[in-house]
Amino acid sequence: MESQILLYQTEDGETKIQTRLENETVWLTQAQMAELFRKDRTVITKHINNIFSENELNEKSNVQNLHIANSDKPVKFFKLDVIKDYLTTAFNKN
Description:
By secondary structure, the protein is an alpha+beta fold. The protein has one domain (3-92). Helix content is 41%, strand content 29%. The protein is built from four helices and five strands; from the N terminus they run E-E-E-H-H-H-E-E-H. The chain has helices at 30-37, 41-53, 59-62, 80-93; strands spanning 3-9, 16-22, 25-28, 63-66, 75-79. The chain has a five-stranded antiparallel sheet. Helix 1 crosses helix 2 (41-53). The longest helix has 14 residues, at 80-93. It starts with a strand and ends with a helix. It comes from Flavobacterium weaverense.
C-alpha cells in the first residue's frame, strides 16, 4: 500500500492542510476537516457520528486508525467519501 503526504496552502497562507493520499483517495483527520471547512471540530465530529449511526457509510471501510508523530494514541483518518458527505450536507443546509 503506497501513501503520500500532500500539503495544501491557500494563497493568503491562512489555511494549510496536510493530507494523506493512499490508494487513490484522500484521508483527513477531524481536526484537518475542521480547519479546511472553518468549523469547530465538534461540528465535524457530530456529523461524522451521524453518518455512521445512520449507516450512510460503512465505518470500517472509511476510517483508518494511524499512529502519528507526537501522538500517544492512534489518530482517526477519514476517507474522501466521509469528507464529500459532509460537504453535501453542509451545502444542502444553506
